[in-house]
Amino acid sequence: MPEPPDRLITFALAVRFDGARAVVAVDGELDIAAAAPLNSAFGELRSVGWPEIIADLRGLTFIDSEGLQLLVRLEIDARENGWSFAIVDGAPAVRRLLALTNLTAYFTHADAPPHVPPPSHGLPRATSPRCAPGRVRGSDGHHPGTQ
């Protein structure tokens, strides 16, 4: 019989492409353990040229200071380097933390795209963001950045 895991998986992310924007949907707890994989997903998307990235935070049940710090660093990087970063903050945990830290107005807020939760069975998987914007068709059937 397999050994139970030492720690239950409490975070999952999924990347999907919607026109010229990439949407990173996160579910579960965004804490110190989850910040690194989320940061990596954003880094990969930026490295292949996605000009607009949305963090869909509606699936979060918890966010700690490390998760908040990551979001602030992404916002700063977007402002300094000319790309677009926005959040969808529909989760009560996110709204509360942003209000407590007086950061609600600091972030650009995006309209909520249709929520596509990350897989909830087995280990969390992320759709590889290693697709350059010109090689992927968005949900509208067009390549990102085209009409």
> How many strands, which pairing sense, and closed or not: the largest β-sheet?
4 strands, mixed
**How helical, in percent, are the residues?**
25-40%
CATH class of one domain, anyone? Alpha Beta
Low-confidence runs: 120-147
- The CATH topology annotation of one domain reads as Transcription Regulator spoIIAA
What is the CATH superfamily of one domain? STAS domain
Distance between the termini: 54 Å
Report the structural category. alpha/beta
Q: Architecture of one domain, according to CATH?
A: 2-Layer Sandwich
Mean pLDDT, rounded to whole units? 81
Query: Strands of the largest sheet, in order across it?
Result: 1-2-3-4
| E-strand count | 4
Strand content: 15-25%
Q: What's the Cα radius of gyration?
A: 15 Å
Shape: globular
The sequence of SSEs as H and E is EEHEHEH
How many helical stretches?
3
